[in-house]
Amino acid sequence: MFSEINQKNKLEILGKLAASLSHELRNPLSAIKLNLDYMKMGVDELPEEMLESLESCITGVERIEYLIENILSFSRRNRNSSEKICINDVSKIAVSLSQAKASREKITISTEYLDNIVKVEFSKSNLLQVFLNLITNAIEACNGNRGKIFIKTHSSDTTPYNVVWAITDNGMGIKDEIKEKIFGDFFTNKETGTGIGLTVCKNLLEEKDAKLEFSSEFGKGTTFRIFFKTELKVQDA
Prior knowledge:
Elements: H1 2-39, H2 48-76, E1 83-85, H3 87-104, E2 108-112, E3 120-122, H4 124-142, E4 148-155, E5 163-169, H5 197-206, E6 211-217, E7 221-228
Parallel strand pairs: 2-4
Antiparallel strand pairs: 1-3, 4-5, 5-7, 6-7
């Protein structure tokens, strides 16, 4: 049963990824086309404003290449394979892929990553799935109310769970009476939700001995924290 739920959730996340990626690609491609047309007016001698247009094209191309390369990289991997990975790197990709949805909802995402953080043993694709789920939930919790989301990685004194990824939103929060239910199968507080996202996240994390916890105050916001097991103590930069 869990494998079926897991597969369904992967397809749902894949759809969200495709939508976000399409939106990300559409804007820079449009900008590139407009700027290239403009540059045709003076190829030999580019005035300052055309040089600025050229820089805009380069930035757009680099952005596209970055997104495509990461998508292709994850699609080539065995989704169940594990390796030593930096959670900062995976988090940056998840944030990048979520920016389009956040921007449409007028929600800002800010980050603070611990330098030289100890790598953890995990599947990159599975961890990306977890981060995307939690970021998407945070965006939806803000409900388009010019919300703010803050993502942070830091160390912890709770050995052996020495690496922590945390996401905080100032959204609607979670009512006390449903806090014990949110990790249950098919439980959802959303009209269009499936109730499988957090269940899958929790199971994927527990497979690697990681813990998912949360704190929330209704009307003020929610924080989800992932505690990763490591063999070494994290050294703050």
